[in-house]
Amino acid sequence: MAAPGAALDDFGGAEAHADYAGAARRNRGFRAGKSVASYLVLVLFALIAVGPFVYLLSPSLRQSYELFTYPPQWIPHTVYWGNFGRVLHETSYYRWGLNTFIFATAVTLITLVLDTLAGYAFARLRFAGRTALFALVISTLMIPTAAIIAPLYIMISRLPAWTHAGVNTYLGLILPMVCSPLGVFMMRQFISTLPEGLVEAARLDGASEFQIFRRIVLPLIKPAIVVLGIFTFMMQWVNFLWPLVITTTDSMKTLTVGVASLQGQFVTDWGVISAAAVMTMAPVIVVFLIFQRWFVQASMAGALKQ
Amino acid sequence: MSAEETEAAWNRLTLSPDQFRRASSRYRRRRGSAAYLFILPYFIPFLAFLVVPVFWSIWLSFNKGGILDSPHFVGLQNWREIAGDTELTGSIKNTAIYAVEAILLVFTLALLLALLLNRYRKGSNVFKLALYVPLLAPAVLVGLIWQFVTNYDFGLFNLILTSLGFGRVNIFGNGTLALLTIVFAEVWRGLGFWTLYFLASLQSVPEELLDAARVDGAKGVQRFRRVTIPMLRPMLLFAAVIAIIANFQVFDTVYVLTQGGPYQSTSTLVWFIWKRLFQFQQTGQGYAAAVLLLGIILVLTAISFWLLGSRRRHERAA
Q: What is the mean pLDDT of chain A?
């Protein structure tokens, strides 16, 4: 606190100075205490955030009945790998993982193509009805799947066989999830920030609109594509309600639906559930640690761009 | 290049007004139709899977059947039925209680953590990463993980209680506690997101304002109350509406943790819709409740846009 010190230099004698020094010392002590307390709070919440994942390892490496012994044996005497074996061999875990990967990847790729094209048109092209159509997109921004799940189910389940879409098909799972208004909105916002001169210059050089999009705009919006890609993939990776409704056979379930179905399938086997949870989270956490910067941007993009 | 040559070249390049009009309208037409080609691939699924289902949903609310058989028109019967359905009113009440509790708790904690991370930058990246990890988990997994904390026999919570000499608590036998468990699961999952959101908001508060307040002798708490909070208010309000919209759709954790029990005390609006549509085949009531959800979300969306607009107007005026 320099300002009061300067004031004291001007007015006060030695006595005031000593007072001030004491106050500053106390203040320093107080501030050190405060920062220690602050870091303790941060550490506490970091532990609360990560702790459950670490704690999950314990039941996954023990026999299920050991969960019910008291006092609890946090760290197993002998490591039991059987839970992981049972997840892999007694459930369709591989298949669920594959389904989730196909579902989330397909939705992400289709969304990226559709949303960058539409975002570019809304940001840089003039056409009749542009404002009205964009308003329509924006007004559907928040519509929850739950509110339209009945028509979606009826539509998909009644599609004729030649479409290869229906209940328990990949197309049926994927198609209704590919029209995210948020993606179009994000892309429009991002492309609007590009300098208009670039596009104009290419246009004067005689490039077609698609060439401009492909050669000029696409290379410049790579960061936005990565962010929207991760965001979309994450949205589908955690998606539960739609896969729950549109898949009924075990072999078409996604990981979320499959792992949820482990509960109470037999008498709930908590060792198996914790092993499945560990197997599901471990790869995601590794990918996250590698690409952390992009993840954080992706999750913020949904909220902050607005 | 001689003057004549230059002029000849210029004449070749310039168009007569008539030529120009024709060329430019041809150009604009081409560009305009190109634009429709750009938006068409998006608009086909957008209309088919979002816009049409909204109107279809509204129409279905005047019908019964439809999931397994064809729908038949029943007029306002569904709406009359759900108007007197205590399970629905209970579900809406539970959802509202859940949303308020979850948002108050997560906003308070997130604001606190954001303030700390904003003040103490050393090592803050590690904390940010740790707080973010729960966001990677699907809500279904969060619910299952939460079982290991709340289970009667082996949950961490009950183990702590017994080791302290208290009796065990059957959390899922008590409506209030069961709902709180779902609240905590959501708070745990969402805390990282809201902390980062508020941190970004805090960093947008102009440093000069805080400095000015400091020079005027405002203490830390005063600066927070008189400068930071008023600056954050528009963002907080907007965040609250977004959070209400998100929390009104709670379903996954209910599905794995409580299945709406005990005695429907954790039944939420989406749980009600799903159960009536796909479990009980009481589709009419499910349709009407879905339209109710749609209405609630649309009103909230309108409020959030209005808030954004007033923030823009405010910023422009300032």
A: 85
HEC profile of chain B = CCHHHHHHHHHHHCCCHHHHHHHHHHHHHHHHHHHHHHHHHHHHHHHHHHHHHHHHHHHHCCEECCCCCCCEECCCHHHHHHHCCHHHHHHHHHHHHHHHHHHHHHHHHHHHHHHHHHHCCCCHHHHHHHHHHHHHCCHHHHHHHHHHHHCCCCCHHHHHHHHCCCCCCCHHHCHHHHHHHHHHHHHHHHHHHHHHHHHHHHHCCCHHHHHHHHHCCCCHHHHHHHHHHHHHHHHHHHHHHHHHHHHCCCCHHHHHHCCCCCCCCCCCHHHHHHHHHHHCCCHHHHHHHHHHHHHHHHHHHHHHHHHHHHHHHHHHHC
Cβ distance of A150 and B60 shorter than 8 Å: yes
CB contact under 8 A, A259 and B200: no
Contact at CB, A260 and B54, closer than 8 angstroms? no
Residues A209, B120: C-beta atoms closer than 8 Å: no
For residue B288, is pLDDT > 50? yes
Whole-number Å distance between alpha carbons of A229 and A239: 15
Mean pLDDT of chain B: 87
User: Cβ of B56 and A300 within 8 Å?
Assistant: no
Query: Which residue has 């028109």 as its token pair?
Result: B73
ipTM of the complex: 0.85
CB contact under 8 A, B119 and A125: no
A229 vs B: CB within 8 A: no
Q: Which residues contact A166 (CB under 8 A, 6 or more apart)?
A: A156, A157, A159, A172
Size of interface A-B (CB pairs under 8 A): 277
Neighbouring CB atoms inside 10 A of A172's CB total 23
Nearest C-alpha of chain B: how many angstroms from A53?
Answer: 8
Judged by a CB distance cut-off of 8 A, whether residue B117 touches chain A is: yes
Residue length, chain B?
A: 318
Tell me: cis bond preceding B234? Omega within 30 of 0 counts: no
- Does B34 lie at the interface with A, CB-CB under 8 angstroms? yes
Tell me, yes or no, if B301 comes closer than 8 A to chain A by beta carbon: yes
Asked if the model's pLDDT at residue A303 lies above 60, the reply is no
Contact A231, A302 (CB under 8 A): yes
Q: How close does chain B come to A18, measured CA to CA in Å?
A: 22
CA distance A141 to B33: 26
> Using 50, 70 and 90 to split pLDDT, how confident is the model at B251?
very high
Q: Is A49 on the interface with B (CB under 8 A)?
A: yes
Q: Do A285 and B136 touch (CB under 8 A)?
A: yes
* 247-266 in chain B: CB under 8 A from chain A: 248-249, 251-252, 255-256
Q: Who contacts B207 (Cβ-Cβ below 8 Å, separation ≥6)?
A: none
pLDDT higher than threshold 50 for residue A6: no
**Does B244 reach chain A within 8 Å, measured CB to CB?**
no
